[in-house]
Amino acid sequence: AQSVTQLDSHVSVSEGTPVLLRCNYSSSYSPSLFWYVQHPNKGLQLLLKYTSAATLVKGINGFEAEFKKSETSFHLTKPSAHMSDAAEYFCVVSPFYNQGGKLIFGQGTELSVKP
Amino acid sequence: DADVTQTPRNRITKTGKRIMLECSQTKGHDRMYWYRQDPGLGLQLIYYSFDVKDINKGEISDGYSVSRQAQAKFSLSLESAIPNQTALYFCATSVGNTQYFGPGTRLTVL
């Protein structure tokens, strides 16, 4: 069975410091992995995706994520947080067989950025 | 202009009422989806459609129905709304396995 676990429900950082949002997945096969961001009262925006090419994936707004098969992890990082990064972040897996186009969502991590 | 639009953006209704949420897209994608989001639960799939003649149930389809009127339009209906259907509803389209989401409809059932 496929599953996604976001290890922190809430992360708080100071502006200008690094961001780390952790995600572990469970999959019998090589999945596609995504990070989406949801700002308050907004829809979900695709940050980045991994689809079995380079293991280090660069996304929008300075975010990147590294696929580590041995650790079944896909952590999201950013070198320097900005106030506008405050939002909820979802790690998402799409099984390789893409059953019905189904996405499996983590529970979300709320990122707070302090001045 | 947004590629995926949803109407209404907010709706308050009463138990037992019939409600329709609408989704339109200009991305030209064949695949469309309806999700609901509850706090702390991520998104759960209600229904999905691979083309106008193809409709499939998702994880939590009970109490919901859908209509795919055209490639660009996919509507979600609650035939008789109940309070535990209070949630944020998202429409999405996809190409390959990448999905693109609308802004959401916040529905409150009193």
Describe what is shown at a glance:
The complex is a heterodimer of chains A (115) and B (110). By secondary structure, chain A is an all-beta fold.
Shape of chain B, please?
globular
The 3D shape of chain A can be described as globular
Number of strands of chain A: 12
Rg of chain B: 13 Å
- What structural category characterises the helix and strand content of chain A? mainly beta
N- to C-terminal distance of chain A: 41 Å
Question: Runs of chain B with pLDDT <50, length 5+?
Answer: none
Continuous helix count of chain B: 0
Class based on secondary structure composition and strand pairing of chain B: mainly beta
User: Mind summarizing the main beta sheet of chain A?
Assistant: 6 strands, mixed
Care to count the β-strands of chain B? 11
* Overall average residue pLDDT of chain B: 92
Order of helices and strands of chain B: EEEEEEEEEEE
Q: If helices are DSSP runs of H or I spanning 4 or more residues, what is the number of helices of chain A?
A: 0
- Portion in helices of chain B: under 10%
* Biggest interface and residues each: A-B, 23 and 23 residues
Task: Return residue spans of chain A where pLDDT drops below 50 for at least 5 consecutive residues.
Answer: none
- Give the ordered list of helices and strands of chain A: EEEEEEEEEEEE
In whole angstroms, how far apart are the ends of chain B?
Answer: 33 Å
Range of helix content of chain A: under 10%
